[in-house]
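Quick question about two entries, pasted in order.
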Amino acid sequence: MNTEDRRQKTEDRGQKRVVSGQWSAISGFLFLLVTCHLSLVTVSNASDLKIGRMKVSIMPEYESSDVLVVYEGKFADKDAFPNQVTFTLPKGVTKLTDVCSLSPGGQHFCQLYNIVNKGEYNETSVKLPYADFFIDFKYSPFNIKSGRFLRDFEYIIKLIYPIDTLEVSIQEPLRSTEFKLSPEPMSKVNKKDLNYYNYTFKDIKGGQDVRFKIKYAKDDTMPSVDIKFSAMSKQDLIERRKGIWLLGIGIVILIAFVIIRRLRTKID
């Protein structure tokens, strides 16, 4: 090998070291960027969050002998998300039927959750990717006996965050009698042979309890609707969640391809 060849190989090795160093620097920068982003999201104080609008639907014996409860709404600051949020649940609730976040396009993304026993009530913690949320669950505040049986229970909405507008809708079970609510409802509507009693509250402070007493009699234990026609499509939710993961993987692959191509251009 002559002197010129050795010099050329030395220059090539030097260029490779430079490229390797550049790649290490880029990798370190990307890692630092992701770490900083996650840190900012993590340290975001969830207690400063505020809900713009929230609707609570309470439906005794709607699709089963339990009480179906639905929380849906939107946090006021959409730029604060993704974020970890907390909701209270009645004592005894250990499982949620759905915990979803809604994208601006209306897609549902199911989320993992954790439920903690807080003594007089339970609490669920979930990380929402978007400000919109949808949570539903069932619980049993009474033990239904055979024959005519009086149902009498109180539902407490324990608010963690302040809310601009809180809407509450309580459904009267089909074939029930002596249906009474306290406080008195503000309005009543009938949808598909079912009566719904509605309330609207403004500027609710965080930490406040909103209470409703529900009382009625019923001669049977049959639900108001057939569950086959009321259940949400879990398969649609699974497919939508799979789609967002595939999109994220595709973006990462595209970024890696662009970086590698630029590095190869510099080597040439």
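Here is the second entry:
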Amino acid sequence: MRPEFHLEEIPPPTRIAPYALALTGEVNPSRDPDELLGSGRFVVLYDPEGQEAWNGEFRVIVMARATLEAEFAGDPMLGEVGWSWLTDALEAQEAPYHSLSGTVTRVLSETFGGLELRSGEVEIEIRASWSPRTTDLAPHLRSWALMTCQAAGLPPIPDNVSPLKPKR
């Protein structure tokens, strides 16, 4: 994973499946809250008896959110582009899946009154879930991290380049 992407375990949901794991992630080069570029959640649900709606025993649920430049607010292709970040990431990380579903939401915030000192914001939120075709969930985690970094505006790292962790 990229050095700008930071993971932390959080309490998982407890009512949906007998077993679960939840992580939160931030795209933040410096860990300074003012430099947060994007964030998201990664949840894995496991039911050894399987669930009909999942078509399997495992379900991966992800969310990624990032602030975009204002020029993207009216882009009619923004939803398609956001969804392609997910599907391209799954393909790039060779994460086999089925039963993929989700939404891409754009939020345009305009400020008024005392908040007029702040400019309006455009936010994208990608929510999705799918059933992995394998118990190896590492490619699915990497796919979510890649999608979140893309939503946050980080350029892709070429295949022949390895990311370096910054010195502390």
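Reply: The beta strands are 5-10, 19-27, 38-51, 56-68, 97-109, 121-132. The chain is about 15% helix and 40% strand. Hope that helps.
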